[in-house]
Every structure is written in C-alpha cells, then in structure tokens.
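Note to self: keep these together.
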Amino acid sequence: MGVFAWRNLLTRPMRTLLALIGLSIPILGVLGLFSLSDGLRNMVGDTLSQIEGVVVLRENTPSPVASTLSTSVVDKIRAIPGIRAVAPEAWGIAPNIEGQGMLMRSVGKLMTKGAGSIWDQPVISGQDYATHKDLKSAVFPRALRERGEGRFLDERDIGKPSIVISRKIARNFPNAQGEPRKVGEHLQIGDEDCEIIGIYETGSMLLDVVVVMDINTARKILKMPEETVSSIYVEAQTPPGYQAICEAIEAAEPGVSARSMNEVQANFGMLMGQVDKVLMMIVSLALLVGVVGIVNTMLMSTTERFVEFGVLRTNGWSQANVLGLVTLESAYLGLLAGVSGCVLAWLGTLVANQFIGGGLKLGVSPFSLLVGLGLSIATGVLGGLYPAWRAARMVPMEAIRLGSH
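Structure:
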C-alpha cells in the first residue's frame, strides 16, 4: 500500500508540488520564528553572564537609560551590611555624534545596512572612577584587557572628555580616511571633542553600543544635574548573597528596584515565554492554511479517482484499506513538506548568520527539526482525514458510476 500511495502522488507532480509549497512555508515559518526566539535567549543569557553584580534602578524603569536616582541613595546603600562596592553611573542615549543625530543615523543605517543596524544606537555610560576602580566584575575593563586595545579610564580622565568605545562604534563612525577610529583619535559627541583612549569588545550587541566616560563628562553631555545618577552598580562581599542584598536595598530605599542578573534573566525568560505563545498563535494560523491546502489537494485527487476506488472495492479492498491509502498519501505529503521546510530553515539560518552579529546566532536544533517534521506529518494526516473518509464510505458501484461521468 505504501508504494501504491507513493506512486499516486508522483502521477500528479504539479498538484503535489503546489501542496508541498503550501505546507512547507508554514513549517519554515515555525522553525524560523523559534530559531530567532532561541537566538535571543542565548544572546541575552551570554550577555548577562558577563555581569555579576546588582543593578539598582528607579522602580518600574526598564533600563538605566530611563532611570533617575538621587545621589543620596548611594550613601544609604553603602551603609547596608554585606556590600563590598557601590558605584554610581550616569546613562543616556548619545546625542549627535559627528554631527549625526539619532534619527539621521537610524534612517541612514536602515537604507544602507538593513533594519538590524538600527539597534546600533550608541549609549553613554558615565562612571565614577573613585568607586568603579574597586569593582571586581566590571564588564568593560575586562573586555578591553581581553580583546581590546589602549587603556581604560583612570584618575587622569576625571573631568576630561576621554572615552572608551567598542570596535563596533569605531567601525560605525570611521575617520576622514574611511577607516575605523583608533586609539588617540577624536570623536565629536554633542558639543564635546572626545579623545579615544581605549577600544573594547564584548561580542554582545547589547553591550557593544556603550561609550564609556567619566561621570562628570557624561552629565555635561547629557545635561544631567550633578545631584542625580541613573543607576548604581553594587557588588556584595559574598556573591551568593545577592538576593538578600537586593531585598535589603529595596527595604532601605523605597522606590528603587535592585536586580541581580539571575532575576533579570528569569524575567526575560518569562517575557520570551509570552512571545513564544504569540508566535504559536501565528504559527497555528499558518498551519491551518496548510491543512486547508492539503484538504483541497486530496479532495481533488479522490474526486478524480472514484472509478479507481470503486474497482479496488470490487476486488476485495475494504473501507479501511481505502481510508488507509488516502491517509497515507496525505501523510507522505506532510512528510515531504516537513523535510523541505526543515532543509530551507537550516539553510536560511546559515545564510542569516553571515549577515548578523553581536552575539546573536540563529540555529535549528535537532529537537526543533523533529518538532517541525512532527507538525508537518500531523498536518498532512489531519488534512487527509475528510477526503479519505469521503472516499471510503462510497458504495463501489456508485463510485464507478460517478467517476465515469
């Protein structure tokens, strides 16, 4: 029966091909969307693994860029037992860089490099050297030592327009010769002519957009009052005690949110879980279209083969045999569509990874491929059930009579 079902599909190649296309595209969409979801999870996880301390923000703010705190909070946190280091920071969206505003940069990148480059928007991080030099888990100094060049901020840069930038920023704002900026060159940020003293590289698109400078210089560029900070980075004396430190900070200063990286990652996981649910709803609609396509294909196929089914029934085939034959044909269609969708998804991720960077890597896992194949076969079988039932329930002579007209 399996060979017979396979040959029936091959005798109508164009109809089979159209059915394959109709179902393989939803499978491609399923694998592509979940590949992107997994890639984002891994990228955020790798980024947060580089940050070991606690970040204190104003309550209900998503990031340091949107947060504002009083400098008095710093002293309150410093007085909490179990805290080793407290480092205030000033954050903000970078103003005009080399005469280009945020809107102009975004439009230019969209036209020349694609939509992904819009996420390259530079962000300023002003650091207080007196407190940051004592940090053990600071990301940017470590990234500069391991994969960068030049030096990091020290006491010589207090109050001066010295900056540390990423290799990405150095490429995005080339010098007059069209080459990436180098250590010792200058970069105009707002009204400040800043000297590049170091270049770092973290490998994360979430971190490699940061321009690091002295906190007083950052306040001047961002027009931030001296008595305010954006966030406070806290290190505990014993890292396993971070959860207790977060609770102590929030108890000592109502209106702030202290977040360990484990908590941030858990919250992001919950967010991506909601995103996955939305993706499943979209995918379900696409699969429904695939089911309709299979039903249409198999209905047309069975209608044209009434005589064939009638002859088979008169030669001893039972209703179950006819039902199994048509269902097997639709299952074959689902299997072929699943294989096609999986191959296309795998090739698509390979091509996409050549054009994206910043720690975001797409990939189709073996489990995802099995899920894709399973969905495709199940969709094929469901789409073939009604045509199979309709073909099986016909009386042999009636089938021959209808098929002969």
